[in-house]
Amino acid sequence: MSLPTTTRQWILTNKPTDLPVLSGPSQTFTLQTHSLPSLKPHQVLLKSLYISNDPAQRGWIGANVDPERLYVPPVPVGVPMYARCICQVLSSTADDFNEGETVLANLGWTEYGILDARGLQKTQDIEGVGITQYLGALGLTGLTALYGTRDIARASREDTVVVSGAAGATGSMVVQIAKNMIGCKRVIGIAGGAEKCKWVESIGADVCLDYKAPNFKDDLIKATDGYVEVYYDNVGGEILDLMLTRMKSRHGRIAACGAIAEYNKSDGSGIKNWYEVISNRIEIKGFIVFDFAPKFKEATEQLVEATKEGKIKSDSSNETVVETDFERVPEVWMKLFEGGNKGKLVTKLKYPG
Length: 353
Hints:
This protein is of the alpha/beta class. About 25% of the residues lie in helices and about 25% in strands. It has helices spanning about 55-60, 140-150, 170-180, 195-200, 215-225, 235-245, 275-280, 295-310, 330-335, and strands at about 5-10, 30-35, 45-55, 85-90, 100-105, 110-115, 120, 160-165, 185-190, 205-210, 230-235, 255, 285, 320-325, 345-350. Strands 3, 4, 5, 6, 7, 14 and 15 form a seven-stranded mixed β-sheet that branches. A six-stranded parallel β-sheet has the order 10-9-8-11-12-13, with helices on both faces. Helix 2 packs across helix 8. The chain is globular, with a radius of gyration of 21 Å.
């Protein structure tokens, strides 16, 4: 098979202030074709197989983002959208990587690409575990959940833990880590819709509350009677504001992981219950998974072991894999903001032939 000399890429064209736009004169991304350079020493030519879809990507392209306040350099206009991918090695000038091997790479929204070998990570075959789990339960998603629950919130067996976005990639891992690895006394999930809530309960939550239900606020107050020690926040917004009133005085700890309710709003809703933080001495700590980088290897081994023991589900039930043509990559990503996924959302690319 001849090697590709060109690649299609989804290029960031206009930085959004609200929900990204997929068509029209102000569309956020544009599909372009570019030539591939020749391989230099210690480089590999990669073919993208699977693309990770993450809410954090929205923060990397915001029009109002101050680069000095972002934990990674924002995506510049005119370059492919950043993303982590599972790729196949098509050709290599690096001794450590051979044709046909599968690797994890920050290739972005592109079909083919050339990267330096030193930034790549080989995947390993684990019996009964699909390769896409390296983008979810056994990847940065799982590490984010473990780090936030265990190290940032310091959840223990005596604690009640509330998890928002519990049917999402990170939230569903937090539920399992809190209940099945740490052994927390009680785990309460929050998700959108009865079907998702039922699934969250099936993976370990003692109860899951539907935030779309008209009586959600009353349900949450009832479920957190006596207040709770830990809240793992993936959404921000009104649910965070409400949870500030449900934290245990002097002992409440909040791991601030995400704010998907606010990502596509140019005017945030604001926090009305901030005095709760002061009067009840609530501890809130934001974090980024890369803070945990020196412990990645050890933590990944712990997640793999928990998977083998059946404490963590690492099968098709904890992910939504959408097989699609490259033209629809942005559409699949947008499902994150429509609640169109259960667990990790992964794009599987289809190629002609």
